[in-house]
Amino acid sequence: MIQHLALFTFKTGTTDDEIAELTRQLTEMAAGIPELRGYHAGPNLRLRPSDADYAVSAVVDDEAGLTAYLDSDAHKAVYDAILGRLVERRQAAQLDIGQPR
After folding, report:
1. pLDDT tens readout for residues 34-82
2. Taking the domain 2-96, which CATH number applies?
3. Tens of pLDDT along 85-97?
């Protein structure tokens, strides 16, 4: 299984309402993508120092599942509707998390 992590730093002026709407749209999107085995998105809790404002964790079975998720029309729609205009910087990584227990 693969865990895809994305960290976002938002543009100055991004509001709490915009972040709440982003979370709503991402959560709704994830519910409709069958390749996702797990999905979490939300504001950084800032329990440790970080310049990331927001994080997404998506778990898929394999590279094909990751591609299906990232290239889906639903993912593109959220980016076009809200995420693209909020993001100043993005970082991403993928981890091999082994087989499900």
Report:
1. 999 999 999 999 999 999 999 999 999 999 999 999 999 999 999 999 9
2. 3.30.70.100
3. 999 999 999 999 9
| CA distance linking residue 36 with residue 38, whole number of Å | 6
State the first-to-last Cα distance of the chain, in angstroms, to the nearest integer. Answer: 11
Pairing of strands 87-96, 36-43: unpaired
pTM given for the model: 0.93
Cβ distance 29 to 83 under 8 Å? no
Give the residue extent of every domain in the chain. 2-96
Contacts of 60 (CB under 8 A, 6+ apart): 1, 2, 4, 35, 36, 37, 66, 68, 69
Helix or strand holding residue 90 (H, E): strand 87-96
CA 74 to CA 94: how far, in whole Å? 20
